[in-house]
Amino acid sequence: MVDILKKVRATDCPVGGEDDQVSQPRDYGRSLTYIIDTFKHVLDSFDERLVVLRENYAALCPGQDLSFEVAVELANWECEDIEQVEDISATLSEIVSTVTRAKNRMAYVGTKIDRLIGLESGGGNIDRITELGLNLTTPQDKNLAALAYMINTGQVNYRQRTIKLDSEARREVALSWRRVISQLVVEMRYAQDLLQYAEDYLDTEEFNRITQGWGRRGRASWGIYEVLEDLIQWYRCWIGPIGWVVD
């Protein structure tokens, strides 16, 4: 399971970005960083137009009919009034904030995964492994033993020929990973709830024009709805393997 988790982190659904050392450039389009960059691109493009719309809207006298420029801009976004436009901007901003928090948290989780020792993959604290008399190329049984020491916070005393284990360590490790799963599930459900919102308010020609061909994918039919679907899949990609590790 540890090896599977390392593969998830490295290639299946990486966090990505400059701080994610395991993510190769070819994985950018599959990373959470790519999804965040896309949402930021949409938000920046939308707010750039919103600034002008606000100025034109504020210039109108109370009760005066909308100017031609304001009416056209509202029509472009398929919005009825400025309040609806402001709500879209706030929603996009909240999405960026939520997913950015997920990125920072999962980058930290990634460092925890790097320290785990798999059957087929090395890892962990090099000094600690050496202290246990192991190395990164030891047979699988010794890798498994080293992982067991880590999970149970084992302490080896070679002079007294004893091994001391923390009876609560395994439970605490499981709880820490369950907390990661819980947060991922909460954020995944938030993204799922936004699918209907995206279909109602963000599935427009203007938004599709912004997202189409963005980044390295160049998907002509890619809209915000599809970006959210990719985000949901990214969460699912992590939730399953972490659950297996906890079990």
Mind explaining what this structure looks like?
The protein has helices at residues 2-12, 32-58, 68-76, 82-115, 126-131, 140-151, 169-202, 205-211, 224-246; strands at residues 155-157, 162-164. Helix content is 66%, strand content 2%. A hairpin with a 4-residue loop joins strand 1 (155-157) and strand 2 (162-164). Helix 2 (32-58) packs antiparallel against helix 9 (224-246). It is mostly helical. It has one domain. The chain has a two-stranded antiparallel sheet. The protein contains nine helices and two strands.
Q: In angstroms, what separates the terminal alpha carbons?
A: 10 Å
Would you identify the regions where 5 or more consecutive residues have pLDDT less than 50? Answer: none
The geometry reads as elongated
What structural class do you assign from the helix and strand content?
Answer: mainly alpha
Strand order of the largest sheet: 1-2
Q: What proportion of the residues form beta strands (DSSP E)? A: under 5%
Task: Tell me the major beta sheet.
Answer: 2 strands, antiparallel
Give the helix/strand layout.
Blueprint: H1 2-12, H2 32-58, H3 68-76, H4 82-115, H5 126-131, H6 140-151, E1 155-157, E2 162-164, H7 169-202, H8 205-211, H9 224-246
Antiparallel strand pairs: 1-2
Helix pairs in contact: 1-9, 2-3, 2-4, 2-9, 4-7, 7-9
Summed up, what is this model?
This protein has helices at about 1-10, 30-60, 70-75, 80-115, 125-130, 140-150, 170-200, 205-210, 225-245, and strands at about 155, 160-165.
